[in-house]
Amino acid sequence: MKILKIQRFIAIITGAVLFAACAHEDQPTESQLDYSVPNKTPLDQWITSSFLDPYNIKVYYEWNQNLVDNNRFLFPPTVDKVQPALEIVKRIWIDSYSTIGGADFVKKISPREFVLVGGTNLNTTGTQILGLAEGGQRVTLFQVDYLNKNSRPDVTEFIHTIQHEYVHILNQTKPFDVQAWSKLTPSGYTSSWYIYSLATSRELGFITSYARLNVYEDFAETASTILTYSEAEYAAFLASVVSPTAKANLIKKEAIVVQYYKDAFGIDFYALRDEAQKNTDEVIEL
After folding, report:
1. Helix-helix angle 215-228:152-173, to 10 degrees
2. 249: pLDDT strictly greater than 60
3. Residues whose CB falls within 8 Å of the CB of residue 207, separated by 6 or more in sequence, listed in order
C-alpha cells in the first residue's frame, strides 16, 4: 500500500514537471492579439463626422451575417453607393427633423444603428421588404445598389422607407391615439393587403395598400407618405379619391397625424413636410 502511494506521488510530480515544461515551451513570447486600430477610409471618416459623432448613429455597410436574415439572398452594398444613399438620409430625414423639431431632436430620438444592404429582400408572396425597424434601435435599408440619387421616384421611395420606419420609432416613444384611429376604417385591414391595387385601397380610405395591414402600419404609412408629397401632390391625391367616405376618413387620419406631431413633439407637421420637400429637391438637383 505504501509502495502504491509512493509510485502515485512520483507520477504526479513527474506529470506536473512535464506539464510545466510543455507550458513553458508553448508560451508565446508576445501577445498574439491584434490591438492595432484599422485605418479609416475616407468613407468611414465621413460616416463618423456625419452620423456617429453628431447623432450617435453607427452605420454598417460591410457584410456582417449577424445583422441580416441569413435565410434570404442578401448582399452588402457596393461601396461607392453607400455615401450617396446616406447623403439622402442625412439631408431629407435628419436635416428636416433638426430644422423643424430642433437641433437635438434626432440626437434624442433615433435608431442607433443603420444597416445597409445592397439587394432586394423578397418575400414568398412576391412583395419586397424595403426597410426594417428593430426595437427602435436599428433600421435596415435594402436596395442601396439600385438607388439613383438623381431620380425623384427612386429618392421618394427610399426616403419613404426611412420616414416610415422613423414614425414607428416615434410611436414607441410616444403612442398615438390608437382607439380613435381604429374607428375610422376597421373593416379594411387585412393580412392579404398585397393582393389589392392601390386604387382599390384608396377608395376604402387607405393611403397605400400596405396601410391595410394594421392600424400601426396605417398610421406610419399615412404620415410617411404625406411627408414625401408636396402640398399640391397631396391635394391632387385627395381629389382623385371618388368615395366621399374614403376621402373623409383619409382627411381624418391626416388630422390625427398632424395633431400627434404637435401634441407629442411640438412639431408643425406641414412645416416638416415642406422642409422635407425642399431638401428632396436639393438632393435630386445636386
Report:
1. 130
2. yes
3. 218, 221, 222, 225, 226, 237, 250, 253
Which long-range contacts does 174-178 make (Cβ < 8 Å, 24+ apart)? Answer: 174/264, 174/265, 176/219, 176/256, 176/257, 176/260, 176/264, 177/256, 177/260, 178/215, 178/216
Of all residues in the chain, the percent with pLDDT exceeding 70 is 78
Output the pTM of the full model. Answer: 0.82
Between CA 128 and CA 138, with CA 132 as vertex, the angle to 5 degrees is 155
Strands 138-141 and 131-134: antiparallel
Q: Are 171 and 219 in contact (CB under 8 A)?
A: yes
CA distance 137 to 111: 4
Q: From the CA atom positions of the chain, what is the Rg in Å?
A: 27
- Signed CA dihedral, 53, 94, 103, 223: sign only: negative
* Cα–Cα distance, 149 to 285 (Å, whole number): 9
Confirm if 188 and 204 have CB atoms less than 8 A apart: yes
